Amino acid sequence: MSLLQVEGLDKSYTADKRILKNINFDIKAGEFVSVIGPSGAGKSTLLRCINRMVEFNEGKITFNQHDVGSLNKKELRQLRTNIGMVFQHYNLVPRLTVIENVLHGRFGYKTTLQGLLGRYTEEEKDRAFYLLEKLGIHEHAYKRCDQLSGGQQQRVGICRALIQEPKLVLCDEPIASLDPSSSKIIMDHLKSISAEMGITCLVNLHQVEVAQTYSDRIIGLNNGEIVFSGTRSELSADQINNIYGTETKDLIMA
Ligand SMILES: Nc1ncnc2c1ncn2[C@@H]1O[C@H](COP(=O)(O)OP(=O)(O)OP(=O)(O)O)[C@@H](O)[C@H]1O
């Protein structure tokens, strides 16, 4: 059964330009799916529509059997506890410690006051340490986040998403700011989260070969439309040209 179903999704930020055009796809629980496409294709917008960080104009998104578009503020907050998010620039609080940043992932389960006072249970703290250990950064637990390398900060970002106990993790260009060796570490962790913990991952990527290495399925987006959806072995050179074609043509013409 689908964990996520997107039907007829349309998004415009301004009246004169459709950014996403009639997007349709399904993701099954536990799948690892990448979204690739040229800059400006709408990859970030698509991810952000799923948890309504960005409001969409048309269509239907069903997550875990909930109609995302019809949820009120309280229901949306509840739904978002099931959807973790990992960002290109980590979105950590730099002056706070690693463990504090991870525990921020529990905010969705707290009252505002509990969150502000940093009231976390022993079980939550144990879980945070367990996740830091799993991602190989537990020895940095009490360091400020701004003392960590980019790759280490991204691992903190992943731990913060995981402590939410999500069913789905949305990753928006998680390796775009990292060197190849840190990128591999991050992608390996995301893959094992999906394979071992059964968490569904939807990952925006710039690098086709990374998408091919890690994904069960790849979605190719061009100018707001899905122009490819298939397995990594189905993604031929022609398909890649089709996904990135407009950008290549623009570059040649420029
Ligand atoms: N908040 C916004 N207001 C207006 N336009 C926006 C906004 N966010 C994105 N856009 C526009 O929507 C289009 C798609 O942007 P988006 O960031 O979703 O693409 P992307 O495929 O993720 O690109 P990149 O790979 O460069 O991050 C772009 O033309 C962008 O300028």
UniProtKB/TrEMBL annotation:
* One family name in Pfam for this protein: ABC_tran
Entry protein name: Phosphonate ABC transporter ATP-binding protein
Q: Which GO terms describe its molecular function?
A: ATP binding
Q: Do you know which SMART domains this protein is assigned to?
A: AAA (SM00382)
Q: Keyword NAD on this protein?
A: no
Species assigned in the record: Virgibacillus sediminis
Per UniProt, the keywords (alphabetical) are:
ATP-binding, Cell membrane, Membrane, Nucleotide-binding, Phosphonate transport, Translocase, Transport
**Which PROSITE patterns did the record assign?**
ABC_TRANSPORTER_1, ABC_TRANSPORTER_2
Domain ABC transporter intervals: 4-248
Question: Which CDD domains does this one have?
Answer: ABC_PhnC_transporter
What gene makes this protein? phnC
